[in-house]
Specification:
The protein is an alpha/beta fold. It has a domain of about 170 residues. It is about 30% helix and about 20% strand. It contains 15 helices and 19 strands. Strands 1-2-3-4-6-8-12-11-10-13-14-17-18-19 form a 14-stranded mixed beta sheet, sandwiched between helices. A three-stranded parallel beta sheet has the order 5-7-9. The chain has a two-stranded antiparallel sheet with strand order 15-16. It is elongated and about 75 Å long. The N and C termini lie far apart (about 60 Å). This is F-box domain-containing protein. It comes from Ephemerocybe angulata.
């Protein structure tokens, strides 16, 4: 008997409740990493066919069978539903290489509205009409009382709009536990004025559609002012007015959970702001402008508002940036990043965009067109310019530099095309700045046409309190003004690490 116990695999010596927990974790990971190809067997079936003890344990755990998966055969899906008994259901379906028979388990699961906790549906190749109209009950108003996550993606935009209306989100109990709402190309129809629905438990809202459709939907709901908001427009934006309207709609949708008051009474104060122009695809020259703002509100420090849209050459990015300042409070802003900003910013434009921000500590720039005007601004002074005043004033005996709290300046892809003259001008500006509000750190990374002698010119200037760092990449020859760039991948791969450091 002792020899028999010694030969038992260590995992079978675990208590049943611990082994069950491992089963659930394995099943969850297998579901989240599932291939687009049909798997021969779901993980729950594999676990139940190892040995008799594992089978008994798996069959006793109803939660193990409560994830319908994406590409399970209809017979297996039906069997899983029966074994899940009364456990909360996770319903996943992707209309990719699927047949009408594959819909049966998903339809059966959605019909059990009292048990559905998560819904994730990807509509790629429609069955002549939106797959959601086939899967979904005729009217889900008031259904799904325990639903926590709703994720619907409609990749085929030629198919009709979804069959439900925005007012459906006001169903009794539907919104009580909803924490994640992700609608991609599947926003409800506008069915006229109605009282906005307060999604009281929402933590993350992601909307991907046309600007008008997103604005309409935002006016139909209200969400806690602590929720993360991710808005992605799928059509080129021609004017900054569109961005201003979306920011206004986002702001109005955010409400205090206790008072349900709009943000006018609890301003959205940005702590960190990032503008970035990103390639939409490595195979084309189109790009999208992405605006990320981290909100500070009471004890909330990590709330994120993201707005992304295809970058139109007819739209003024500087005007777009100014819309952010109009609709969001920048008075406590600490970090500003311009990543791959393609427009030149003069000193006056820096002042107009960001005014005299008293709390700004870090500025990071990752394109040669934006930093030159900033260097000029760093040694200029203002006589008490306020956030609401974009005009400049003449220096006086009480003048102070712009951005008086600024301590760190990060320059990536700066162009030292004028060699020694460029570095000498940088030294002169920083020395002038050091007389009243010295910088603590200057960081140079992947700069074009820089040589060690230029770095040494800045370092040996011994500007009081300034620490200068350089990645020691010399004579980087990249044409940042062209649409094609052999070093683009490296630039974007390292961007987030560089920005967050």
């Amino acid at each position: 008997m002792d020899d028999g116990r010694d030969s038992t695999p260590p995992i079978n010596r675990l208590p049943p409740e611990l082994l069950t927990r491992i089963f659930l974790l394995l099943n969850q990971e297998a579901s989240s990493e599932q291939s687009i190809k049909k798997d021969p067997l779901p993980a729950c079936f594999l676990l139940s066919h190892v040995c008799q003890s594992w089978r008994d344990l798996a069959l006793a755990c109803s939660e193990l069978w409560a994830d319908t998966g994406y590409f399970f055969a209809p017979a297996l899906g039906t069997l899983m539903l029966s074994r899940s008994r009364n456990a909360p259901l996770t319903v996943r379906f992707a209309a990719m290489f699927s047949t009408p028979e594959d819909l049966v388990p998903c339809q059966m699961a959605l019909a059990q509205v009292d048990r559905v906790r998560e819904i994730e549906i990807v509509d790629v190749i429609p069955f002549g009409r939106p797959i959601i109209s086939v899967l979904w009950p005729s009217d889900f108003r008031g259904n799904f009382p325990i639903l926590e996550s709703l994720d619907i993606t409609r990749r085929e935009r030629r198919s009709p709009k979804p069959p439900f209306h925005a007012r459906a989100f006001g169903g009794s109990g539907f919104h009580a536990f909803l924490r994640e709402l992700d609608l991609w190309g599947f926003l409800p129809l506008d069915d006229g004025p109605h009282t906005p629905t307060f999604l009281q438990a929402l933590r993350d809202l992601s909307l991907h559609d046309t600007a008008d459709t997103i604005s309409t939907f935002l006016r139909a709901i209200q969400i806690p002012d602590s929720a993360n908001v991710n808005v992605r427009i799928d059509e080129p934006v021609e004017t900054a007015l569109t961005i201003g309207q979306l920011l206004s709609d986002v702001k109005f949708a955010l409400r205090n959970p206790e008072t349900k008051s709009p943000p006018e009474f609890s301003p959205l104060q940005l702590r960190r702001l990032v503008f970035s122009v990103e390639p939409q695809s490595i195979y084309c020259n189109t790009a999208s402008l992405k605006i990320e703002g981290w909100i500070e509100m009471g004890n909330i420090k990590d709330q994120l508002i993201t707005l992304a849209f295809p970058y139109s050459q007819t739209m003024d990015s500087t005007e777009t940036a100014s819309k952010v300042g109009e609709h969001l409070d920048l008075s406590v802003l600490q970090d500003v990043s311009l990543l791959n900003w393609y427009e030149t910013l003069s000193g006056n434009e820096w002042i107009s965009l960001f005014k005299n921000l008293e709390t700004l500590k870090t500025i990071a720039i990752a394109h040669p067109s934006a930093y030159r005007g900033l260097l000029d601004v760093l040694c200029e002074k203002t006589a008490g310019l306020t956030l609401g005043d974009s005009s400049t004033t003449k220096p006086s005996s009480h003048s102070k530099p712009y951005f008086p709290s600024l301590s760190t300046l990060k320059l990536k892809n700066a162009n030292f095309e004028r060699g020694g003259q460029m570095s000498a001008e940088m030294v002169a500006n920083l020395q002038d700045r050091s007389k009243s509000c010295p910088l603590a750190e200057l960081r140079l990374e992947r700069c074009k046409n820089i040589e060690r002698v230029h770095f040494e010119t800045i370092r040996r200037a011994k500007i009081p309190g300034l620490e200068v760092s350089w990645d020691e990449v010399e004579n980087l020859d990249v044409d940042w003004d062209t649409d094609t760039d052999t070093d683009t991948d490296a630039e974007f791969d390292s961007e987030s690490d560089w920005e967050d450091e």
